[in-house]
Amino acid sequence: MCSTYLLNDVSVLPTVVGSLWFDHIKGWYEHKSLFNIQFLMYEEMKKDLRGSVLKVCKFLGKELSEEDVDAVVRQATFENMKNDPRANYDNKLKTFFGIQKKGHFFRKGTIGDWKNHMTAEQNEKFDMIFQTKMKDFPLKFIWDMNEE
What we know:
3 strands; Rossmann fold
């Protein structure tokens, strides 16, 4: 997901600072028209970065030249973002928020890496909770690179 989340090993509930991920996403979605919010999933960007940049441009009402779109796409690649301290918050989380966590703000940049961090039992538990909490939610989530 585009939102940063930490997997709680005890309950297998993804969280963001201050709340459960489910509540975080649903809360923003419920108010999307009040705050003019565009939802864009990391997986969408990973599959079609150029299309995602154009989607953001349309949302913002901005027309960019082909050269400018190309420049944004180059700058927004995972590797470039990971190496840019303005985008990579590894040090900021620790310095400003006192968050000491194992791992990094940017991990591998792949879709489906959760499979390397969750056991089959954790995955089943998460799926059950996800289906319950998000069953009528209109946004669709991509869990694997081969999904549409």
